Amino acid sequence: MTDERILKPDPLPVERLLDFPDLDLEVIAGKMGLERTINLSELNRPALELAGFFDKWKPERVQIIGTGEIAYLESRITVDSVRGNLDRIFSHHPPCVVVTNKLPVFDEIIQLADRYEVALLRSLHHSTRFIKRLWDHLELELSPYVVRRGVLMDIFNMGVLITGPSSIGKSECALDLLAKGHTFVADDLILIRGSQLSRLIGTGHSPIPHHMEIRGIGIIDVYRMYGPRCSRLFKQVDMVIQLEDWDNSKEYERLGMEGKTTKILGIDVPLYTIPIKPGRNIGTIVEVAVLDCKMKESGIHMAREFDEKLIQAMRKREGR
Fold first, then answer.
1. Strands, E, within 228-305: which ranges?
2. What is the mean pLDDT of residues 67-84?
């Protein structure tokens, strides 16, 4: 399998940050600045800038003001140089400024946010936790991505991308896996983003999540039909299963000695090819493929162990 064209993400509007419930953000001032966009996942805490040191400062990053910065301002907000430094931060129009730990916000900061139309947000989380969560979101939203057709499932805590030609039975396989208690992520167009941690995160490309198309029935809402336990919005992609029509002229893997991979965004992902023919329980075969992949990742290679045992048995017979 070859990798698709790598696409660049659009800048993220600041207003989108309010859609992430784990950030617990509220708008304090500068509502006009919600239309600004974020282009970088890197963040900045402007402690040195408040003290007047602007060398190497990156105003294009989201600025995080925590307990230390607020304590510094509380003791020096009346100093003209500090007020000037604060003005300089906002005048460079960063994407937004976030105050963490639900700390009180000085009137001077509110006035600057409104004057320069920079969104001033506040979170109830401590700085470290908030920065981790925000960076995770930005890293995901601003990473290059590819789009693949298939069904993404969470099977035994493994993100499994099931692909194959149209009408091969991908959605029917997903239904069988749902009935077995596994979790649905997305159907049809799967958006896969890469991160700096060499992880691949898959989610649905549709703005309406949790839905699946079943030919002969129509569109079903997996979340409402099977319950919240059986549906999630995104999952790390750990392996790919390719479904294809059975070809009698093709030699299929029978021992499993050689593992195959496919590249997604330059990252090698384990690949299993499963031929389809009447009478095969594809859902169960997919489960076995996932368990085999998990065992190989943990250092257990059953095909090689079988081969070694077979060689030992043959040597014993020859030695009689």
1. 234-236, 239-245, 260-264, 267-276
2. 91
